[in-house]
Specification:
The protein is mainly α. The chain has one domain. Helix content is 92%, strand content 0%. It contains two helices and no strands. Helix 1 packs antiparallel against helix 2. The longest helix has 41 residues. The protein is elongated, with a radius of gyration of 19 Å. It starts with a helix and ends with a helix.
Length: 88
């Protein structure tokens, strides 16, 4: 295993991390923006109004996206193990 293989594995790991975490972060951002807009329009500045819906939406999106996240991580792990076996 040379340096190009190591760089490729690190790049693939970063891409998998973005694929797994990115959708959840985008959903949390969208919900936060909508709640902030509602708070600005109604002038209700309650802190729990920001956190509770965001947490509920994040948990729901985790449950909804779990099959995709698991298959992505499983594919990367299999590829990583195949690389380790081929290199050793």
């Amino acid at each position: 295993m040379n340096s190009s293989d190591t760089i490729r594995l690190a790049r693939d790991a970063i891409l998998v991390m973005l694929q797994i975490g990115g959708p959840i972060l985008v959903i949390a951002l969208a919900v936060g923006l909508v709640i902030s807009l509602i708070q600005a329009l109604t002038q209700v500045q309650e802190m729990t109004l920001t956190f509770v819906p965001k947490i509920l939406v994040i948990f729901a999106s985790l449950i909804f996206l779990m099959p995709f996240m698991l298959s992505t991580l499983t594919g990367f792990t299999r590829e990583l193990f195949d690389t380790i076996i081929a290199g050793g």
